[in-house]
Amino acid sequence: MGTGTDTAPYPGASTEIGAGPEARWPALLMHAAFFLLLGASLARFLMRHPGETRTPWIIALSAALAALHAVGPVLGTRSAPRRLTWLGVLVAVWMVLVLLAPSFAWCAVPLFYTGLRILPLRAALALVSLLTVFVVTAQLRLAQGFDPNLLLAPPAVAALATAVFVSMQRQAARQRDLAARRRELIDDLLRTRRELAATERREGTLAERQRLAMEIHDSLAQGLSSQQMLLQAADRSWDADPELARRHVLTARSIAERNLAEARRFVHDLAPADLAEGGGLEAALYALAARETAQSHGRTAVRCHVEGTPATALPDRVQSALLRIAQGALANVKEHAHATAAALTLTHLDDRVVLDIADNGRGFDAARPEPRPPGGVRGHGLPAIRARVQQLGGTLTVESDPGEGTVLSAAVPLSPAAPLSPAAPLPEDRT
Predict the structure, then answer these.
(1) Beta carbons within 10 angstroms of residue 205's beta carbon
(2) Which stretches within 334-424 are classed as H helix?
(3) For the chain, which residues make up each domain, given as ranges?
(4) Which residue of 19, 105, 313, 362 has the lowest C-beta tally within 10 Å?
């Protein structure tokens, strides 16, 4: 009857007096009932048997029984042997008291409860049976003659009390099991949420890494590649044509200045420099075409053409992505296609915007891209372009044949429902 946390002695039983609100009130009720029955029995004895020689013994035993019952919760928190010893002494004192004064027999009902809580089920049933026999014997001693009620009522009360107690304990055990399962489910849910959060963080990190890789490829890496090509050309023509070499160096310096502006904007996560200068995507594409033509010194003429008028301004995300797609496609044209002409065509339709990049270069087998030329610049190329289009919920079409040039067509929907989720990393391009 203590407040310990010992294992239940039988399935459905609890050894805790304060296991929870549902188990605390029966224990308090039984304590109160015991002291009320003990006090009533003592008062009845003193009223009916005043001045008898056994009266001091009855009073002393009643006080001892009350004291034992009162210290039970404290002893119940200790080891099981001490608890069993306490229960044995309590029952022994009660039995002596019943033998001296049978009216104390009704204190057995709270003792039923105490034994059922402390002992294993079979031992508890044996104790209940023993206490019931004492109650029946005591009542028959008080009766003037044989009374069937005195013989049958105590066993019935004992059986009812035992059945109620066992039922309550098993119900409490089921509730504890349900609570434990709920805790497990909550723990599983929290663990799943933590795992999902960790997965989202990993996916976010990979998506950001992919975005940074594409930004670096489409801006800084392309500029550095162009500078390298121009400086190599200047080195080759330094003695034969100093004026051409000087133009190559000036063009490389211009590209370096533009790369520096791109790097600063990249650090601050701003829009591409061409878009930041004003005029929107169309002006940026015209500027890109003019710049690529000038940097090639007439080897590759790049034209830009815009068809249709947008109903509303394109989102900054779409403008930035389409400009990066155009930059990446023209970089491939310059580095791999050996084209003499290229065209940028921006078409505004009702439900989408389409950017076409066409060149008259050497082309390739679109189903089986040709290997990278020796010494070629390693980059993202077509996979980077495809990833940008997928981020906007669009589609990329590539048409090319060896010797027939190449046409890239990026179609981006204008519907708000277009997915904007990060695209998965794609394999490295070979074109």
Answers:
(1) 10
(2) 382-391
(3) 21-146, 196-371+378-413
(4) 313
